[in-house]
Write a structure and sequence with these properties.
This protein is mainly beta. It contains 3 helices and 10 strands; from the N terminus they run ααβββαβββββββ. It has one domain. The longest helix is centred in the middle third of the chain and has 22 residues.
Amino acid sequence: MDYYDQSLKESKKHCFYLDESGYLLDEVVVTYQDIKKLFKKNTKRIPALNYNCTMNANFDAKFIDPEQKVYPASGTLEATNEWISKNLPYGYYGWFHHPFQFITDSDTAKIRYLLHSNTHTALNFINLAIVISLLDDYGKGKLKAFYSYLGMKDNFKIFRISYPKTFSIGYSYQILLYVDEYTKYIHHVEFEAVNTDSDKDKYLSKVNIICDCELYTNKKPPRPTVLLPVNINYKAQMFDGSQMEIKLSNISIKYKN
């Protein structure tokens, strides 16, 4: 097959020309499939973690400065998530405006601020990835998502959702979702954000996050089932050539009234 143009997407009809070969083909039928509908049909709409809660986790981190000197840190952390608040105005909910408590035997004095800010970014971005992948549109229709189906692997259907246009915060996003073929739950997320407007954020150049998702239901008091990100691997590249890597494991949450 050596010929293809955009008219297939536009009209859903086109002619494909096949070169002659040494074997014969039966009749070939090419059909158009709406990948967005395919994704919606094969994915259950389980929301991202949206409880008022505290999260506890183990962390391993390292900061690599522009001269490639490595500063490691490891230990445990406690983070507060808040979605309903009398103290914070709308739009300030989530992880970002709450201090984290890091407990470590490592000397984190040199990277304490970077550890704090990048862990915030990791938790907020992965929740954002889950949220926007399950919405019909994002940014009140101003931002168009592009859907791709990449096939099957280990009983998971792999979809890609990308927002190539610049977001208001200066990033474009790409999300890979591994959806269980049988349960239709999102099992694994790979998220990439690229800074497309350095004037709006002169710090982060590129962020990659890989994590698994588990179903979580708070029993007392009863709350709806949500997707809890676990085994989070975060990597960030900064404009000055430095890098930050963080791994969060053994994640657990406790509901907070």
